[in-house]
Amino acid sequence: MIRILFLFGFIFSGMSITAQTNVEVIQQHIDKTVWAPFHKAYEERDADALNAIYATNVIRVTPNGIDTKDEFKRKNIENFKASKESKTQIKLDFWFDSRHTNEDTSYEVGFYKIGLTTNGKTQHIYGQFHIVLQKIEGVWKITQDWDTTTINGHTISEEEFSKKEPITFLE
Fold it and tell me: Is position 170 within any domain?
């Protein structure tokens, strides 16, 4: 009886390691196909490339309300055009606090830091994001995007952001 229990324990622990490895492979794929292009598009102020990472009919939630009509995509085009005209450089850093992923859905929470540099002066914006990604016709897309610059009434700052190192992407 002990041998049977040991055998089941061994089999289930192997399945757990395989599942964890599979999740890591999926997350690496998401990093390569979603987050690296997102980072590049954001810093290059390429609204078309950024908007292509999102699904159609995204739920976008900010302190300003809920957008279910993809209005934020139009604003991405306007904002990036304005930043190019003002010669504002954008630097985006972020890291993940938690990621829960299966074969077709990933829920990812993290913190970001955006540096906006105009005329040699840099302003930083800090925040937290909650993102839902889904595999749609074989391609990972952002289907829900929520972010805020405050938690429990406290403005997110360098102090919260500096708790972890930002993710880096090789190009």
Answer: no
